[in-house]
Amino acid sequence: MGQNSIRRSPQASLKQQHSSDIFDAEFDDMWPARMPSSTRRYRGDVKTEVGRSRPDVQPLTLSDTRSLPTRRKNAIPPRRTASIAKNQARKPQPVDTEEIFPKLNLRSLKNRSPRFHWLFYCGMALLVMMLGWVVLSMVTNWWQVTQDDWHYGRPRTFQTDAVVGHADSAQNPSHFIAINLNRHVEVIEFPGGDASKAKIYLGPVLLGQNQDLTVVTLSFKDVNGDGKPDMIVNVQDSRFIFINDNGAFRPERSGENLQI
């Protein structure tokens, strides 16, 4: 009975032998045999050179790497020469940098007044003076023409009464009309105010731009000293004298002593 209790069944012995074989195979693959401590282990370089023998390292198969645990790291530490070679292989690359401009203060730019040369200010002053003179001349001319339109109309016409001794008197003076008709100066006399005895005296012809707007006026003065008033036609700064002779007026003659 005791022998029977000590004796094991063949199935149990086979199972134990099979399990021990599995563990032995597993541990043999996962954990390589320890080498003697007196032996120095070398790791091969990253790149194998021609003519150089490979290091004495036990290679691992694909099945062995699959069976290794994921958390286990490489048992063989890297050589210093490998890390130095990697660091030497990495050359510093130039870094592209963009130009960074300082931020401009808009308020300071607005408040900053531009500075110019003093000749610039002199030129601007002269330009303003010239423009002012041109504008002032245009305004003055326009105002003068407007006033003449109000007083003399178009065509320019001037009228006056005077006693010149042509069948007239202080009660019935002669009436004179001076007109600038298309640059032609004409004077019409009504002796004693009688239009039936009207006389026309032709004056000068005016030349130049806008001379048809020139005002013609009349004045009477004794210029030759005979005691009779003579007629003076005034055109701007020019004067044309008509001598009172034989009940009418005639243009002056050369050589006459006249005192205006």
UniProtKB/TrEMBL annotation:
Biased amino acid composition, Basic and acidic residues: 42-55
Transmembrane portions of the chain: 118-143
Keywords: Membrane, Transmembrane, Transmembrane helix
Ranges where the record places region Disordered: 1-63
Biased composition (Polar residues): 1-20
Protein name as it appears in the record: VCBS repeat-containing protein
Organism per entry: Ktedonosporobacter rubrisoli
